Structures are given as structure tokens and as C-alpha cells.
Protein 1
Amino acid sequence: MTQTPPFDAPTFRRQLHQHPELSGQEQHTSRAICEQLQGFGLEPITDIGGHGIICIIEGEHAGDTTLLRADFDALPITEVASHGHISQKPGIMHACGHDGHTTSLLKVAEQLSLTPPPCGKVILLFQPAEEIGTGAAAMLSDSKLSGMTIDHAFAYHNLPGHPLHQVIVKPSTFACASVGAKIELQGKTSHAAWPEHGINPTSVMLEIIEFLQALPDQYRDVFSLVTVAHVKLGDAVFGVAPGSATILATMRSECNQTFAAMQQALSDKLAHLKLHSELDVHLSWDEPFQAAVNDEAHYQMVKQQAQALGLNVTELAEPMRWSEDFAEFLAQTKGALFCIGSGEHHPELHNPDYDFPDPLLETAAALFLALINDLHQIESLERANS
Ligand SMILES: [Zn+2]
Ligand SMILES: [Zn+2]
């Protein structure tokens, strides 16, 4: 009988790191994950909402279903590093640590393949296209997943700026809703000497910028933010009065209802401007994310299991300003998103010199397994039924 070698997680992670793939184009990464799961004797289900994979591990007895999620897409960033596993793909790198998230979930897969949970079902979910905010929703709407009842959902993100292995938790909103708003104003150019012969978008453009910057003031009770990211008016010439303008802004809020109200306010404002100017006004939304809202009991579970493992736990006073499309799972299933510190002086996420810290592979897997252990023992089934 041939002995399968134990899973070498850091080596696997570094291989993923060397071969990063952009959101929506992760076919090779997906295949590598799938082959590794098969190597553990598991039966992955592939091509879910694109290159997504799920792997279901069932216990002997009935019980709850828990979903653990890891993402696996990379970013259009050129890596600057001297280590031996630098990206082999020019202009693409694992700058957010999704190579690590996925590898730690594979460690969980290895362990559960050896010791399945006594009760219920564990769904290990490997998700593509997180960075563009579409992967989670695409997987959830796929018929291979959409019919399943899921009782608990957990995911983590590594987080530079915090001590290595520190578990970062927060009740309620963990990460903000966000969206990119692209506003295009189309008028008509004219000779700069006769601006009155054209339709000049300058004053409307300035009014929109002022409106965007003042918008969060209307929603002071929760954290909300609008950042005007880019503005273009006409072309860089002296002889022409501008005939078009483009504004790009990013909107954020910790509250999904407030966020929807902010989006509606912008739509209404633009509809009003369109009606009262000769300009054609067009609004489009890009990369929408809901706020990731943790369930109280599940946030407590993460905190308790992390403490039981002897990990340092800290609680955020405010939600993360960034967004995470795990929010889509939390909108449907009770669960929690948390972070694990990547080191206080570790390069930031999306920096060109970022690299996932391998010691976290073990920590993340241990915490996931502790959560599974807590939710899928015979006693937890009895507890739920009593
Ligand atoms: Zn990222
Ligand atoms: Zn990320």
C-alpha cells in the first residue's frame, strides 16, 4: 500500500503564489485545489459560479451544516520581492494573501478527511473573484449550492498591522459596504472664444463633486464615506470649451440601509440635474459590496474558540473600511468574518512587497477546526435539541 505524503502547506502556498491568476481567470488555481482535495480522498464539486469549488464532508449523524470559505484570486500588481517564490506571471501577484487563505482551508480539508466531524456536514468552499466583488454572489446563485441549507458560515482575512496570530473580531458590521460610482456628463464642445455655443458640463460637474463630498454628513449616526477618486473635464487643450466630464467616486458605509439611501440620493440628484440641464447624465455602479454583518452568537464563537486556543484576541472599535464579498454569505446565513494578524510591520495588503505569512496557515486551520469541533460534536447536537 502506498503511503500518501503529508500535505506540505507552505510549499503548496508558495506554488500558488508563483502562479497567480486574476479574478475570473483562476482555472489553474482551481485545478490545483481540486487535485489536492482529491489527493486527500475527498470529492470536490467544481465549476460553481465560475471556477468555484465546494467539498462536502459529512458526519455519521445528522446535525448542522457549517460552511468555511477561502478565496483564491490574485491582483493586477507587479510583485517586488527577492524570495524564491516570486510571481512567475508579469503584472499579477497574490498581494492579498488569498493563496494563504486557500492553503489554510486545505489544511482543514486534510484534517477532516482523516477525522470527519461526528455530526452534520462541513462545506469547504473555495471562492474565485473576490477582489472584484462578484465571486460570492455567483457561487451562491449556482444551483449546485443555492439549494443547500447552511446553518453557520465563517471566513477570515489576514491583516497586516496587527501582531502575528492575533485574532481580530467585531460584533455586528465587520467590513463596510462599498461601490464605485461612475458619473458621465455629455454636452457639446465649442470654440473657447464662444463657450455659449456649446453645452459646458463644468458647473454641473462641480455641483456633483460638492454633493458627493457633503453626502456622508446626512448620515452621521453610522460610519459613511465618499471619496472622489478621479475627475476628467474636456481635453487638455486651450482652444476648446469642454463638452464632457467624468467623475469616479467610491462610496462606503457600515450600514446596508444607509448605503442604499446614499446610492438613492445620488441617483435622485443626477436625475434632477439631467432634467434641469441640457446635459446627458449617466450613472453606473461598479464593484458593489454589501456590508459584512456578523451574527452575535457566531462572533462570540470565534472569540471563545480563539481564546481557548490561547490566541491573543482583540476587538475592533470600528468596522474595517474595506469590503469583503463574504458579506453575500452573511446576508443569507448566520456567521462571522474575522481577521488574523499578519505581523505589525508586515507589508500592507495590495502592496507590491506583500507575501502571506506562512505561520498563519497553522493558526487559521486550528481556529477553523476548533469551530467545527465545537459545532459538530454529538454533545452540540444534543445541546441544540434540548
Ligand atoms: Zn484584496
Ligand atoms: Zn483579500
Protein 2
Amino acid sequence: MSPLLEVENLRITFPSSGATSRPVDGVSFSLSKGELLAVVGESGCGKSLTALALLRLVPPPGQILPGSVIRLEGTDVLALGAAELRSIRGRRVGMIFQDPMTSLNPVFTVADQISESVRAHQQVSKRAARARALELLQEVGIPDPVERLDNYPHQLSGGMRQRVMIAIALASEPELLVADEPTTALDVTVQAQILELLDRLRAARGMAVLLITHDLGIVAGRADRVAVMYAGRLVEEATTAALFARPSHPYTKGLLASVPRITGTVTRLTPIAGTVPPPTAWPSGCRFHPRCPDALPRCATDDPPALPVGEQHRMRCWLAEAGQR
Ligand code: SF4
């Protein structure tokens, strides 16, 4: 079966005085129908720009460089005209963001905003769109959905606002939902509820989900596969089970060591030393080498390719070649 989404050698550049800024630099991955892929990395690694690029929403003056490939069920997204692109944005691909308050319009009611999305994709009356809005609120588990229809965004909690955003995204029956840090602004209990909702919706609808997050801790038990991103590149990709059982890239190991665990013995959390470098100054060789506790002499000069470390498991690290993971 061909994948729903294929991304090959995605590169994004921003003009920068005196230096080349390449915040996304050769990212490749694919996503099948009904699959949940999590892209995980620290702030500044390029994961959100990667998500925006899927719908050609990279903010100017950023540009997707020639040679990049994004295909949705075989359609070349980067070659589409404006009208064809509109038929993909918000229709075949829905998107939700970290802060629903900035995505929702404060002067329109919940019913107005969901109905608008319904009517943008289906030719139905206002009454039918409002009825569909109510069904969607029920589907995303909003308490008192009839009452909520006539609420304004400021009358809702953060968790309810995110559920409304999900309802708006679902109005077009998308095949793919891109969720960029959908729970970061929420408290832990509400985070879990929203993640459970996304999981339930993808199972019920057969919808693929691309989950962008800085938090490896929320991925376990939910994602089918995980891609770990660092300095504009994917550095490790595996099934979620394999990644947690056998994390191989030193950066992934560092991320896992900095995630609190609720089971097992209590150990001190170990942060990764240093910070993500700016995209105008990606280090030579392996981009993680200035922070890597396992760096070899060649790591400062030689850029490792993606190397296999198991079935459906690969990483960009020379340790894979040396068999030292
Ligand atoms: S290639 Fe070298 S520096 Fe990079 S992660 Fe592997 S061991 Fe560390």
C-alpha cells in the first residue's frame, strides 16, 4: 500500500545576513493511512516548520528549496496551483496548533466557527451546519455541547478550546490531522484527555495523525512510530516500541534521560548539556557532536548518513556503523 504522505529531502531556508539559515535540512519520512507518527525534538529543531511546509504554510521570507518533495497520496503538493492547494488545506489535511486562543476568533461563537468550517467544505444550510457543529462537539467530548454552541472562546477552558479546534479541523473529514504541540499549553490531566481524544478519533475515523511535540514522555503508548529531530534533521526513526526499548542515538538517549518516569526507581533527571545551535550555525560533521557524550574523533568532521540499527529502525550516528549502540 502506498503511503498517505511522503516527504523526501525537505529543505527550508530563510535569508539571513551573511549566513545561510537552513532550519529544515533534508528531512524525509512517510506516513500511512490511520498511522500516528510523532516528530519529537527540542524547540528550534525545525519540527514545526516541517509541519507548516506540508501545507506550504512556511512563513515568508522562508522558502522550501527545489529538490524537496511532499506527496499526498501521490499528488505533488509543491507543484499545486492556489485552487488545488485550497482543496488540500483544511480539507484533506487538518491542522491544530499549540494555542487555540490565537487560532479561534474571539468575536464569533463556537457554533459560528465550526459551522463556517462545515460550510467551507459542504454545501449545506446554516441550520444543517449548526446541527453538524453540535455532532462534532459531541464527538470531541465537550461537556454540555448544546450550551457550548453559543459560547465565545473566552468562556471556555483551555482544554475545551482545544477540543473546539479539533472539531473545526474534523469538519472537513480530513485524511490527515497535523497536531503541532496540541497539549503544551494545557495542564497534565487535560493533556492526557486531549491525547486520548486524538487517539480515539484516529481509530474511529481511520485518520492519520502527525503529532509534533517536544515531549517524548507523551509519545509512549500512543504513537505507532517516532522520529526524533535535531538541528534540522531526523536523527533517529523507529517504531515506538523499539525506540523506547532500544534508544540508539545519543540525543534520543539524552531526551529519555530528561523525561520523568512514574514507574520504576526514582533517579535523578539528566538534562542534555548545552543548547540547540542556531540554524545559521549548524556544527560541522555530526550536528550533535558539541553536545554528545559519546563523540568519536571523526564526528566533528564527518556527517553521518541514516544507518540501519534494526528493523524499521535507523539513526544518523557513526556508532551504528561501529556497532557500538
Ligand atoms: S555521530 Fe558521533 S557525535 Fe554524532 S551522535 Fe553519533 S557519536 Fe555522537
